[in-house]
């Protein structure tokens, strides 16, 4: 996928902090990761994650461990 170039405006103090805390030439990656973390995953990513999780047997075993707690009524 080709990267898109954009021009953004941020607070000068925030930019100075980014320059201080990140290695050189890593600001773009940091901003991209921050945006991805804040946006909802797209449908394809969610579907792929659910399919992968469904294949993990330890998840089914964990569910089986909790099945005795699934009762119709708790004692009073």
Structural description of this entry:
It is a single chain. The protein has 76 residues and is mainly α. The chain is built from 4 helices and no strands. The chain starts with 11 loop residues before the first helix and ends in a 10-residue tail after the last helix.
Keywords, please?
mainly alpha
The rough form would be described as elongated
Q: Determine the structural class based on helices, strands and strand pairing.
A: mainly alpha
How many extended strands? 0
Biggest pleated sheet: none
Count of DSSP helices?
4
Tell me the fraction of residues in β-strands, as a range: under 5%
Mean pLDDT, rounded to whole units?
A: 86
Helical residue percent? 55-70%
Strand/helix succession: HHHH
Rg (C-alpha, Å)? 22 Å
How far the N terminus sits from the C terminus, by CA atoms, comes to 60 Å
Sequence stretches where pLDDT stays below 50 over 5 or more residues = none
Describe the structure in brief.
The protein has helices spanning about 10-20, 25-40, 45-55, 55-65.
What topology does this entry show?
Elements: H1 12-21, H2 27-38, H3 43-54, H4 57-66
